[in-house]
Amino acid sequence: MAVESRERGGGQGLPLFETKKLGGARIGHKVFAATILGCLGWIWVYRSLHLPRPGEKGRWAWVGMFVAEVLFGLYWVSTQSVRWNAVCQYPFKERLSQRYENDLPAVDVFVCTADPEAEPPAMVVSTVLSAMSFNYPPEKLSVYLSDDGGSALTFYALLEASKFSKRWIPFCKKFKVEPRSPGAYFARHSDVGREAAAAGEEWFATRKLYEDMKHRIEEAMERGSVPMEVKEQHEGFSEWNNPTVTKRDHQSIVKIVIDGRQGDAVDDVGCRLPTLVYLAREKRPQCPHNFKAGSMNALIRVSSVISNAPVILNLDCDMYSNNSDSIRDALCFFMDEERGHQMGFVQYPQNFDNITKNDIYFNFFRVFNEIELREMGGYEAAPYCGTGCFHRRESLCGRQYSRDREPEWSCEARTRRDETVERLEEDAKLVADCSYEKGSQWGKEMGVSYGIAAEDVVTGLRILCRGWRSVYYNPKREAFLGVAPNTLDLSLVQYKRWSEGMFQIFISRYCPLAIGHGHIPFGARLGYCIYLLWAPLSLPTLFYVAVPPVCLLRGVSLFPLVGSPWFVPFACVFLARNAYSLAEAVSCGATPRAWWNSQRMLLIRRTTAFFFAFADAVLNSLGVSQIAFDLTAKVATEDTVARYEKEIMDFSGSSMMFVSIATLALLNLFCLVGGLMKLGMDFKFTGQMVLGGLVVLLNSPVYHALFIRRDKGCFLASVVFKSFVLASVACSIGILMG
Ligand SMILES: *[C@@H]1O[C@H](CO)[C@@H](O)[C@H](O)[C@H]1NC(C)=O
Ligand SMILES: CC(=O)N[C@H]1CO[C@H](CO)[C@@H](O)[C@@H]1O
Questions:
Q1: Residue 91: beta bridge partners?
Q2: Residue 180: what are its φ and ψ, rounded to 5°?
Q3: Which pTM does this prediction carry?
Q4: Which residues in 58-157 belong to E strands, given as ranges?
Q5: Where does UDP-alpha-D-glucose bind (predicted)?
Q6: To test ligand 1's pocket by mutation, which of 322, 324, 325, 348 has the most ligand atoms within 8 angstroms of CB?
Q7: What is the pLDDT of residues 482-503, one digit of tens each?
Q8: Would you list the DSSP string of 231-263?
Q9: CB of 470 within 8 A of CB of 333?
């Protein structure tokens, strides 16, 4: 088939995608890296030569500083592994259409939602609608919504969306609407805009339909139940008739809401509609459900019964498509005659559409997206990030890559075209049952891995180890947009979950340094360690921000005299590292202010989220506690949204994380003031004072919230109390010992 189609033209023999190396500041970067490495060595020599003798004051602090600096140095080396050979990918979707338009493979889109309270159904169906209206033959497109909340409300929202799609999809096609999430589209385009003027009446009518739908869904959410008359109309609701059905305890529910197989499901202008399926896999209290990984695996099986497409796109429920051609772009990587057969997955970056200008919570992974992931892509070993990723079904299902075997690329994806809907639903329910996975390889060799909170990263690693390659594709125009956490609490909870999961991988048998030999280039394996080691990185960081200030109070000097040659490497590393990271951030489009905010968030994350993640992971591996998957809520009160938009940090939260943020800030402030009063401007202590001063400067929003602000985003009284006590105790210990 491939040969035949190539002869049909479309730039015969030309590749479907091109990989270009990014040149640029190559030499400059090497000089920079060599300088830093030299300075790091110099610092280590200084530490070992000047270590106080046993019994001398401050010996333990010196040892700690030495260890911390060695660890920072090694970590820094691993961060350089992802700054060596960046590449950029260019797919050619015109060539794809010319060569393969009639043989395009079927594509299944998975959308996962977990809870109607945290993830409002109105938002979820906007994402579903954006997936249904991809610029792709509808008979080859199927959209699956997995509802781990098992909620009739979500099912109701999906029914509403299926009705609205009959109007929305033709509207999108006629007016080339972008983005195709109605929520995002109507929020972005106002009724006096160019788009509205061009479409006229139809625009207003469509918006009215959308708003009515949204209103009905939100009303049902508020009431907490589906309207009676709707329940009677659709037999699907009978699944919820039994009063024992709850979120954690219910049978499998599979409903084919739109059956796009035969061509009798059409939109308002008579064009075919994509298939749309609702799934709530069986949940039983005695049966581990394995969170999102379990839901993904159920989706893989259910879709194999219904549409069995060879390509799978998975999206989080808040991540809508901002580009209706993304499927075609991704297929270029899979279908390239030369290199496509080995591609396991194509990862798109995670972008957000509610980032404020100076990004106070450092949500935007600018440098990560623009630089680090590009490099991993350069090694053809990009990580799987859990959303915005196209998979080849066979590689996700655990198949080994083999050069000799033809890929399973049948266009005849709808294997059971003539089966009745009822029959398909019954069969699909069986594979969504808890018992189906018992004693099987699901979650082990097949599908998404279980038992590790960063299930996506470990799954990606295992696919790479089976011989597949992966591509990272970062188009100029963002392909998928999600919702970024808009409070500090949410952001830290998310990072705690990530860093814990990644550290679990590091200490598991899937550590990329141990496995992957021969499959993943060494540079990429080192690159993975940057993220897998987030959690333990908290220990040297905590030491570095807590011990030097206490030593200042005690009069123990930890850095060389300003003006001595030993001071040079410290100054050099400090200045070069910060200048470089500032330049990197600005070159990726961040404002200098956003960079400054990112440094604060790095400090806060490393000393709180990463530390608690480390503690949890260690306890967990000792068998003390279980992993818990904390869901990040996507709803926000007006109050928090207003603060977020004004870029005022929100410290309202009672967790230990907030106590440690405030304690560290207070400790540094007390010690800096105390040290200045006691020692004055002693050059022996300049290094420590500069360090303390910087920490205090970075923490200025914390002091602002502690002492000046009076709104609801301040620290809770109990948090303030605890942190004052803790910081004072630490200072007193320092003074008493000194
Ligand atoms: C989304 O797509 C639009 C084009 O429809 C583009 O202008 C924009 O830059 C993209 N990204 C965001 C964040 O809006
Ligand atoms: C969930 C959430 O906070 N969404 C917000 C994203 O940002 C836009 C504008 O900045 C707000 O309108 C949304 O409410």
A1: 17
A2: -95, 15
A3: 0.92
A4: 87-91, 107-113, 141-147
A5: 119, 148
A6: 322
A7: 999 888 998 999 999 999 999 9
A8: HHH-GGGGGG-STT-BTTBB--EEEEEE--SSS
A9: no
Encoding tokens for residue 366? 């600018």
Q: Which CATH architecture has domain 102-350+385-484?
A: Alpha-Beta Complex (3.90)
Q: Distance (Å, rounded) from C-alpha 660 to C-alpha 551? A: 19
Q: Give residue-wise pLDDT tens across range 669-707.
A: 999 999 998 877 777 888 999 999 999 999 999 999 999
Say how far apart CA 185 and CA 203 lie, in whole Å: 11
What are the residue ranges of CATH 3.90.550.10 in the chain? 102-350+385-484
- For 145, list phi and psi in degrees, rounded to 5: -110, 120
Instruction: Render pLDDT for 625-675 as a digit per residue (tens, 0 to 9).
Output: 665 555 555 556 788 889 999 999 999 887 889 999 999 999 999 999 999
**Residue 278: strand pairing partners:** 145, 255
Which residue's alpha carbon is at the smallest distance from atom 2 of ligand 1?
A: 322
Query: Is the shortest distance between the CB of 194 and ligand 1 below 6 Å?
Result: no
Q: Ligand 1 within 6 A of 324 CB?
A: no
Could you tell me the distance, in angstroms and rounded to a whole number, from the CA of residue 354 to the centre of ligand 2? 6
Query: Six-digit token pair at 629?
Result: 């998957």
DSSP states of 624-679 as a string?
Answer: SS----PPPP----HHHHHHHHTT-------SHHHHHHHHHHHHHHHHHHHHHHHH
Q: 481 CB under 6 A from ligand 2?
A: no
